What we know:
Blueprint: E1 4-6, E2 10-11, E3 17-18, E4 22-26, H1 27-32, H2 43-49, H3 58-90, E5 99-105, H4 111-122, E6 131-135, H5 143-148, H6 163-174, E7 180-186, E8 191-200, E9 205-209, E10 235-240, H7 243-259, H8 277-300, E11 309-313, E12 319-325
Parallel strand pairs: 5-9, 5-10, 6-9, 10-11
Antiparallel strand pairs: 1-4, 2-3, 4-12, 7-8, 11-12
Helix pairs in contact: 3-4, 7-8
Amino acid sequence: MGSRVALPVVANGNGASLPSPYVELDRAAWAALRAQTPLTLSASDVDRIEGLGDRVDLREVEDVYLPLSRLLNLYVRGAGQLHRVTSEFLGERAARVPFVIGVAGSVAVGKSTTARLLRDLLSTWPETPKVELVTTDGFLLPNAELERRDLLHRKGFPESYDRRALLRFVAAVKSGRPEVSAPVYSHLTYDIVPGEQAVVHQPDVLIVEGLNVLQPPRVDAQGRAGVAVSDFFDFSVYVDAKTDDVRRWYVDRFLRLRRTAFADPSSYFHRYAVLSDDEAVETALAIWARTNEPNLVANVRPTRGRATLVLTKGPDHAVTRVRLRKS
Length: 327
């Protein structure tokens, strides 16, 4: 038997305490919520989906991701009913509106694998046969522009993205537009691919995955808040882990890339392929300390509390606890 607990009350800044809007479940309690949700992925499917260094097996899918797909299916149904009620009240025809999910978390924490698993699982539900996944990498500013702004060393920080283009893209998909295009990013060349576009065709579900997708709206000089990408999300997931674990996973991934993608002469990082093990570890730690950890601490982790659901991973990449917002 697993356990579920309401999180402790939290201070509101004025000395008073407020009840937490979250319930926290250990893995066993969360896995029991799968109910009769069928397993629709095979071991080979999971091998195809998992990211470099992000070890996922069928047990992880059964215990963690099947309950989540069931919950999301219930959310999709509820959102559809609410939309129909609102349309009836306004006297409008209830057009189909895509359900949008945001997936956030640190570099190397496994958010891309989470997003791909959700895409494949949700596409097997009758209500959501058409699921599309877009990463925010395509909305990074081109390297030439980052260099012009002296931001190449801060790639992945909020200011390195074309936030207006990302906002327009998600808003257009959410409005039900038949086709919406997004730029394409190449991890091989470490840059936007000129002239290439990924086209989203009015999906049942759109998953938007990226470091900073849960950023709050910016406030202008007059104190007025704008619109954030997360305002268009119907549900959001934050993939969490201790910083020491994520750092180790990042170094392990760097070492694997040195033997694979970096070995390609056309890779932006080809110069790292010739490093010794010790040199590669030193280089990876330096990149982590200079860019990824500061971004995690200053920009990514502070958005964790904005998520609908938090998946907390242990040292072996396996999810150990789940935190779900109830209100």
